[in-house]
Design goal:
Elements: E1 3-7, H1 13-22, E2 26-31, H2 37-42, E3 46-49, E4 66-69, H3 76-87, E5 93-99, E6 108-110, H4 120-129, E7 135-141, E8 143-145, E9 170-172, H5 173-185, E10 192-195, H6 203-213, E11 230-232, H7 235-240
Parallel strand pairs: 1-2, 1-4, 2-3, 4-5, 5-7, 6-11, 7-10, 8-9
Helix pairs in contact: 3-4
């Protein structure tokens, strides 16, 4: 039985763990909250209390075939210490959940070869991808929605939404989970992927639709003369993994 360890059983990590258990994997899952340990256990996920900012023993957690890092933590020193522990473990395959926010808004389509900003996420990507002790696949997810994350709940209390004529880059939770399944299934490690719906409505279209659909009033947009945008291309992930997006119409959420 293949073992998968998920560092961070939150919005993405927990439903991902549940889906892997259903597929027959033995799943180890971590949380920073003692209250959630029993919840993970009840979902047939072997629970671990792990906070990478604390220098604790995670030897047992790292006895795994695939390590998925799905935490929002961005401290470089803590990741350097974590990587040193991975180096001493049996781990040979890593999936790191990153973000398309590493790309600047240059009014063009951004691929995996496009220029990036020197953000903490990019620095962590480099630390993992440049390590010769294991192979890391980095997934740069676009804006995340699904589950308890609904775009209608963003920009509350009349807060003005910037760049109404720019474009949205979003991906649904279901697609996030299935893409990770595909990477494990196809043993596709040592790669860098953008993951984003092919549909890029304007921010005005998208947030107006989301708010009205949920019964909220029409949102307020900033009046901006200079338009700044980017469109994230997922061509590579669709080609390499032969992946077809489940939610590829963002105006039908």
């Amino acid at each position: 039985m293949m073992v998968v360890s998920i560092l961070g059983c939150g919005w993405l990590g927990k439903p991902l763990a549940v889906s892997l258990v259903k597929k027959g994997f033995y799943v180890k899952g971590s949380t920073t909250s003692t209250e959630k340990l029993n919840e993970l256990n009840q979902l047939n996920i072997s629970p671990f209390l792990i906070d990478i900012s604390l220098d604790i023993n995670i030897v047992e957690f790292l006895k795994t075939d695939v390590l998925i890092i799905a935490i929002t933590h961005k401290n470089i020193e803590d990741f350097t210490r974590l990587i040193a522990k991975i180096e001493k473990s049996p781990v040979k395959k890593v999936i790191f959940i990153s973000t398309t926010s590493v790309y600047p808004s240059l009014n063009k389509v951004m691929t995996e070869e496009s220029e990036t900003m020197d953000t903490p996420h990019k620095q962590i990507e480099d630390l993992l991808r440049n390590n010769v002790n294991f192979k890391t696949t980095v997934i740069r997810f676009a804006g995340l929605f699904g589950g308890d994350r609904h775009p209608a709940n963003w920009f509350k209390n009349g807060k003005e939404i910037p760049q109404p004529n720019g474009f949205v880059n979003m991906i649904h939770l279901d697609d996030c989970i299935q893409i990770i399944h595909k990477i494990i299934e196809k043993d596709c490690f040592g790669e860098l992927f953008n993951a984003c719906s092919n549909h890029h409505p304007t921010r005005r279209e998208f947030y107006t639709y989301a708010k009205v659909k949920k019964g909220f009033s029409v949102p307020v947009f900033k009046k901006e003369t200079e338009v700044q945008w980017k469109k994230i291309s997922s061509d590579k992930i669709q080609r390499v993994l032969r992946y077809k997006f489940i939610h590829d119409d963002l105006l039908s959420i």
